[in-house]
Amino acid sequence: METLHLSVNGNRVTADVDAHTSLLTVLREHLDLTGTKYGCGEGQCGACTVLIDGRAQRSCLTPAASVGQKKIVTIEGLSNGVELHPVQAAFLKEDAMQCAYCTSGMIISAVALLNRNHHPTEAEIVDAMDGNICRCGVYSRIIRAVQRAAEDLTNSGNAERAGS
Ligand code: FES
Ligand code: FES
Question: Is 58 near ligand 1, meaning CB less than 6 Å away?
Fold first, then answer.
């Protein structure tokens, strides 16, 4: 057992874990950040996706002890506390969910994409979201939501928020 010191959603947190504890377990069971979902536990579905230093990563496959001082952002950390992140808002506007189990991972992957590419083509969106599985099959609405988020971020002159 060791005590980890992590940066999660802008907060310094600690967790007492063993060497093999996944970041997903720390987020959900130690920090009560249950917006990040457990799907397959094998890196195949994307439900557990979080941002680590701005990159979309599978938290189920990431040992918490490997993260160090990198900045972790979960779905709970995207909003500024007053308004939704533009990608979250776009998913709502486009009704890009059914059961919503995949949604937090989808949104995090979309944020990572828009962080590095402010104007993705449809093919680039499909490619970037390829590792996120939606069992409800609302892929067309998800693509529209990412396109809308890109437009909204551009129109608001707020593209840098995609990497928040
Ligand atoms: S739970 Fe991590 S990829 Fe499925
Ligand atoms: S909305 Fe149900 S899994 Fe995607």
Answer: yes
